[in-house]
Amino acid sequence: MASRRICLWFIFMIITQSVGEDMRTVRMSSMRNSKFQCANTTCVPFINFVTRTILNCQAGCLAVIQCAAASFHRSTSNCELFADMLNQNRNMLFDADIISMNVIAGTRSPPDLVHEPNAFCIAKSVDNRPRQHQHQPPQHQQPQQQPPQHQQQPQQQHQQQQELQLQHQLQPPQQHQRQHQQPQQQQELQLQHQQQQQCQVRWTTTGNMSAMRQYHRICILSNGKVLVTGGQNDASVLNSSELYNPATGTWTNTGNMKDYREKHTLSVLANGTVLAAAGFGNNLELNTAELYNPSTGTWTTTGNLTSVRNEHTASILANGKVLVAAGYGLNSAVNTAELYNPSTGTWTATGSMSVARYSYTASTLANGKVLVAGGSNGNNLNSAELYDPSAGTWTTTGSMSVARYYHTATVLTNGKVLITGGSNGTYLNSAELYDPSAGTWTTAGNMNVARYLHTASILANGKVLVVGGCNGNYLNSTELYDPSTNTWTITPNMNIARCNHVASTLANGTVLVAGGSNGAVLTSTELY
């Protein structure tokens, strides 16, 4: 029996190596009850995420090309991915809660994973290069030194049959019958694609902000860093600002604004400075404005707006000026609008909207005009208007099919505008598309979850990621809109439910979500 097991193991090793381009292996060495601990920065995980099993932790590492090691925490189900592990024998500390693993060979993004007792991970991967069938070994090829079958003893024949059965099971299905090669290969490729999607790490936590924030604002600086300003914590309005560095995943404090403000606007000007305008602070609406200089990390005051306002919008025009419009004034919604001139630091009034509104959306179109839609003024609005910078006037355009406020608006790559969710006394899951060429709205299907005070971010592939929000509950659910099919699909949940947060698409294509509230105001941030 011992010799038979050795023989079968030997056959397995031969077959595993012989299938060549049809099988490639990935192995992760297991170090139980151990965790990485070292001063080298490469021992800091570049991704943390929560998953149910160590198998998913392995898959997460194999799906990320820079991952060289992983640690799985049994008690918290937290998986840490590492880019490199130097001097691992000197960097391990005992921890009964942790299993650590190193990638020691092979490829990534496997179509299936086998979790073996020794905690090694073996993956099969399909190579879809054209095969030269005549060079493949026959399915039941005998070892060259094997004696003729009629000379073998019955016991040897039985052993050979067992070995051949094992070899038959290990051979890739493409080698069974040539006429079935293409359908089987397609099935394996489909399985590989499905498993790759499952193995992808969708949401990962990143550094926490130094302050709890909701009703704050966010923008991407020209240097790729992310600026977050103001908002409120559990007790008061904030004037603090902080910067997120995507390269390190950390936040650092930067200069404080001159005024405490929430529900304000941020606009990145052509010269790289950031304009913060109006908002609410110290129990009154603001008409003040200030400029942030990324080079010095300081704020300086600039000209005051002509009117106080919060829950307004700010849109950068093609001529570099900033259009600020509507919002909530001293006691009611306003319809006035004004322009900021960066070269003079002054504001001038421009045409007023036909309808006063706040908690609406504004989108700069490809033709340079600005579309505003929805909102409230005591009544919930479905109306929409267009601002023409060349004329300085507003004209009405087609109305949405549903009145809504606290919704989102996203300009798609085809120039249309996607409106999602919001509320009108009822939480909405409906979505609509505005066509600038026709001035009309059409349905964009329904989201899987009704939500308002959520975010919507356009991705590099043209899809739109909708995140979190509220609907009587705080939501961690997310979903994707595909403009090519006009459909919605559910995507993995955030780690933390949040409403009234902010989101921005970074230069590397990931989406940063920061702060918000889920009953408590949050400092946490996540990456998609």
From TrEMBL:
The keyword Repeat applies. InterPro entries: Gal_Oxase/kelch_b-propeller (IPR011043), Gal_Oxidase_central_sf (IPR037293), Kelch_1 (IPR006652), Kelch_domain_containing_8 (IPR051746). Gene3D superfamilies: Galactose oxidase/kelch, beta-propeller. It comes from the Eukaryota. Keywords: Kelch repeat, Repeat, Signal. Residues 1-20 form the signal peptide. Residues 135-189 have a biased composition (Low complexity). It holds the Pfam family Kelch_1. The keyword Signal applies. Residues 128-189 are annotated as: Disordered. This is Uncharacterized protein. It comes from Adineta steineri. The lineage of its organism: Eukaryota, Metazoa, Spiralia, Gnathifera, Rotifera.
